[in-house]
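Morning F.,

Quick status update on the modeling queue. The single chain you submitted on Monday has been processed. Sequence for confirmation:
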Amino acid sequence: MGSKQKRGDSWFITVSLGRNPKTGKYDRYTETVRGSAREANDRIAELEDQIAKNRFTKPSTMTVKELFLFWLKEVVKPTKAPKTYNWYEMNFRVHIDPAIGHIPLKDLTSIEIQRMYNQMMKTPVNRTEKNIDDMTDEERKALKPRSRASGNGVHRTLRAGLEYARRKKWIRENPTSDVDPPFMSLKEMSAKRRVLKAGEATTFLDSTRDEREYPLYLAALTTAMRQGELLGLQLPYVDLDEMTIFVCQVLETDQDGSNPRIVDVPKTDNSYRYIRMTKAPCSRN
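Structure tokens below.
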């Protein structure tokens, strides 16, 4: 039978794991439950049910860093596009690891995550080799503030990695669900992503009709294809009789824009698709 003990605003619970066949002694599992006495009792009942059905697994002892190194190498890299992997890896290496990488996964809470987000948004972007603490006041003022889009990217990376840990039952809950992430406001999003109105799109197409890139502009405005998909599109995948485009490859580059290459793996499996055209972006000639 499990037991609980009040400790501040939480409960310290203990359940028996049965007799250890190697030592002959009874093993116990302890856990802190934040909430009411009823929630503590419910957790005890849940654990005892898992133990009775031989489904109980002790929480992982790995750190946040160990989780992300495994997740990036064994989960993200084999299944995602190289650019997606590089984006996740950069967010982890630059922001997540220095702030919370040392924390054991089972001890990570929304408090540490919120502190990381707050500190990250207070720190300006420094692309120089000089430490911010060693800069003059004028040099600090010249640094640009960090964008909320950058902060949101870190949140998405952390949430995805911790969600993998939750599915593996290495943690009970994903602590990112209880934080206030640095999301962009609607005003910031609209300023960042300028969308052409119908009349503007028509005017733009009319003014570029004789340009070499006109088929690219037309496809971009009428198919909603991603940039890499558009730049990787080749004539064999355009069916002018059926008026369809088969999306099966993308153009990728290194992070600095160099080394362009065609990759026959779009962003996700759902990215392989046929798109019906309203206008032919090119002729048979």
